[in-house]
Amino acid sequence: MCQGSAVTDSGGGTGVPVRRSRLAEYAEMTERPPGASRRPVAAEGAEAPARAEANEAAEPTDAEVAARRREFAALLETFRDTAVLVPLRDGGWLTADFGGVRWILAFTDESALARYALARDEADREWPYQAVLGARLLDVAVPEAGVPCGVAVDVADGTERAVLFPPASGVVPDAFAVDRVRQGGAPR
Asked: Is the pTM of this model over 0.85?
């Protein structure tokens, strides 16, 4: 299993390094201060680099971002109300650690689980599983993990069909979201 590089901060001025998930950094990068421009600001008398202009063209508009957020919110609600299959392994649910996050692996049906088993070259072994509501995974299992945790659905099906529900506010309980700040100012 791959691990992302560790990023630390000062822990709210305490001088004690605190491990931060890369997801927290990604969340911070998506937020803009109110009224901030998407256009890069060039120094007085200098032109903005052509590369910055090219990147600006690829950025989604505010309307596109809002539409994607609505789409994700609808997908999240559907997931919360749906029973998924969670394979059992070593006395617990099958998980994978990646990028500083523990992911509970879930599958929409037996075919999706079989594709995962084939991709891992483990189709010849038995794959016991448990049917679990998505809401139970997000609201109960994530907090019980004891580490930043999210849910990965149909991971063998590529970017077109696989879905990640990261440990972010609005997805998991706020107390377990990596993009929330603990009391005292230190990020989770």
From this structure: no
Closest to 103 measured CA to CA, from 163, 28, 52, 43: 163
The answer to whether residue 36 sits within a structural domain is no
Tally of structural domains, the chain: 1
Q: Does residue 182 lie within any of the structural domains?
A: no
Per-residue pLDDT tens digits for 152-178: 999 999 888 999 999 999 999 999 999
Residue pair 79/171 in contact by the 8 Å Cβ criterion? no
Digit-coded pLDDT (tens) for 48-98:
444 445 555 678 899 999 999 999 999 999 999 999 999 999 999 999 999
What residues does 88 pair with on adjacent strands? 93
Domain of 139, CATH number, reads: 3.40.1350
